[in-house]
């Protein structure tokens, strides 16, 4: 796993105001580019809730991942049906929720996103 993806996988996420959200649970990798597109962030006291957040505009400083979205927006993010793979429809729903331009639907179909199991790497 490339170093930057490994660093993302072990980071603690913060919202756009610097408020702690929780640990990164999964990193979603774009099949076409091989680059991370989204992270799943544990939320709440025990991290039992989670949200998928785009990495657009993120900043990684040490083990702190600073995301470009407010906590309340992240909390209301749509939840994909399949944890292991983001479909083109998932991409569209997430981009729409976060107010981002998803590009064409055909581009999303050509580049679905899979996750990297971060818990397996922590052993």
From TrEMBL:
InterPro entries found in the cross-reference section: Bac_photo_RC_H_C, PRC-brl_dom, PRC_barrel-like_sf
Family matches, as SUPFAM superfamilies: PRC-barrel domain (SSF50346)
Species whose genome carries this gene: Corynebacterium uropygiale
Gene Ontology biological-process entries: photosynthesis, light reaction
GO cellular component: plasma membrane light-harvesting complex
Domain PRC-barrel intervals: 5-71
Pfam family, one: PRC
Protein name: PRC-barrel domain-containing protein
Stretches the record annotates as Disordered: 103-123
Highest taxon, organism lineage: Bacteria
């Amino acid at each position: 796993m490339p170093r930057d993806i490994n660093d993302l996988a072990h980071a603690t996420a913060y919202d756009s105001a610097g408020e702690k959200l929780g640990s990164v649970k999964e990193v979603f990798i774009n099949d076409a580019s091989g680059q991370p597109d989204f992270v799943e962030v544990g939320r709440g006291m025990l991290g039992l809730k989670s949200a998928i957040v785009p990495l657009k505009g993120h900043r990684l400083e040490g083990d702190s991942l600073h995301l470009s979205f407010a906590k309340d927006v992240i909390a209301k993010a749509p939840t994909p049906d399949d944890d292991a793979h983001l479909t083109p429809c998932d991409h569209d729903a997430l981009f729409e929720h976060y107010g981002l331009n998803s590009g064409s639907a055909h581009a999303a179909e050509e580049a679905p996103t899979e996750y990297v199991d971060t818990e397996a790497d922590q052993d």
